[in-house]
Fold this protein.
Amino acid sequence: MEFDFGPVITYFPTLLKGLGVGFLVALVVAFMSIVGGLLVAVISIYINKVVSWPLRFFIWLFMTTPLLLQLYFLYFGLGEWILIPAILVGILGLGFHYMAYNADIFIATIKSVSDGQYEASRSLGFGHGATIFYIIVPQAFIRAIPQLGNNMILMVKDTSVLSAIGVAELVYASQYAISVTFRPFEFFIVIATLYYLINIFMELGQAWLERQTAYRR
Amino acid sequence: MDFNLMVEVTPLLIKAAWVTIDISARGLLFGFFVACGLVFLQSFRFAPIRWFARGYISVVRGTPYFVQLLLVFYGGPSIGLKLDPFTCGVVVGAFNIGAYMSEAIRGSIESVDKGQAEAARSLGFGKVHTMVSVVLPQAAALMIRSVGVLAIVLVKNSSLVSIISVVELTYQAQRLIGSTYKPLEIFTLSALMYIVIVYAVMGIIELAYRRATRYTTQ
Amino acid sequence: MSTEHQTETPMVEIRNVHKRFGDLEVLKGINLTVNRGKIISIIGPSGSGKSTLLRSVNQLEVIDQGEILLDGIQVNRPDKKGLAFERHINHIRQNMGMVFQHFNLFPHLSTIDNVTLAPRKLKGMDKNVARELGMELLDRVGLAEKAEVFPNWLSGGQKQRVAIARALAMQPKVMLFDEATSALDPELVEEVNRVMRGLAEEHMTMLIVTHEMGFARDVSDWAMFMDGGVVVEEGTPDKLFSDPDQERTRNFLSKHLGDHH
């Protein structure tokens, strides 16, 4: 066996483009899943049961079934009604998936902050809504940071799965190159290396963020 | 909802669900061996062996399972590693989950109070004997919980082997959605099957955990 | 259970023992001889090195310099490395019973199994013989009826009594007590002290690290005050506790006498 990384270099611009698409998706998904997760958590805890029950069901469903199955459902399900580009399906699918996971974390941290802080805040004269908005949520968010970081690191790795529904990220971008160069081993080694580097950077970032917020926890 | 269709495809999906269970169970079994091997390697005095184990764990945890699967399945033949899809799913699943599991096992061993080992050592027990008779039985309870969580991850990960055309639950679901154009019906059924599998795993873990902690709960 | 009464032969000898944790020297040349059947108490403030000294005796802490002998056999063996040292120390430890501050009972084993684990596994004692021995020991510490109970169901005082029985099961030549009553609620201290007094009456050789000044004074043949890794003063308990020579000893005692009584 001999390895030839020449083709990988030739097609590197293609890979970079895939990397860019993946990055874009990850960015949107991170925003959507964190903001959405927080909203879902707040609503399901503080608003009436009629609204919270379906939300809890949504969290539970997305946490107990595989991402790929959810993606297929959205891809074909939405495809029945509207013409929708794969990248949007990918963002929605990955976004909902991690929204559920993040909401699960927020529910736990909001509950842990609420004990004690809620009464303290109300005794100062804050209203119900103001207490949630000014007192509970900021603390719950900071407490959630370590686990949110873990989830986002997992999410970035999961962008690779979006190739299955045709999102032109790194793995998908390499498929054409592999089919013409017959060098799957070299390409996937390089892809894995790229992911590994991204992962290292993210872990460093997470550690930094945890240090920055540790004194507030 | 088209209930006739749902009844019609249920046997196909159940058959596929068995493949999901099969591949996950084998992956868990071999993954446990991989994990034990990694824990063992990390106890070596000779540093390079420890570095190898640490490096392996870091790389496996730092790259997507999906890419690992594609690398071994499509890239494997270039280094003389030809695996059929099912075997590939089991092997990559095991080597992937093994890395996570070794951390879980190490964590549960380290969580046992140091005084326990000291007490055993003060009675004259050797290191291995202390580990087997005193530390491991106590680590077992925590280990069951954390390995259980990973077993569920493994079940969900197994859906990715549909990409290398193992006819498991997700593969079958995708094919049926494509041929029937009834995504809601097929999704409901296949999601239900995943839920049943996941809850069965959780039930087994809970039972095992209760058995392992009989002595600590009043 | 070592019933030999001849008192002038040394059981434990500690000679010029030094121990460092990194840059910090916690034992700075300690000497102590414990004769057969004698009871020595070591007192001193926390961080004085008294616990480290006790742990060094059975090599839970490996000393950097000096010698420790048990019944004439050298315990620390800097010449032995790896497995050879393991075999040596495991054998030595079987002759020493250690009792810890936090009991360290094995929570996954019943009380009787805690007591019989070592004789069964290390001495190959027959299961029934071990059980008989275990029941006898549990009876001695007043807990025979708790034989099948798991440690988490026991009070702190009961746990410590089981821990003493566990250590006695190996028929040790010496018992080491590392602040055996420090983690107990005040009302549970006496039941453990009673068991220790019982051992004293049977002439068990004992080395006791303790905060209980009254108990130390009652029970010991010799008392030692440590501070900052050195022996500040030692003598008969009557002398050390009522008429110490050193200022540091006086200061320490004035702060601690009557703490618990």
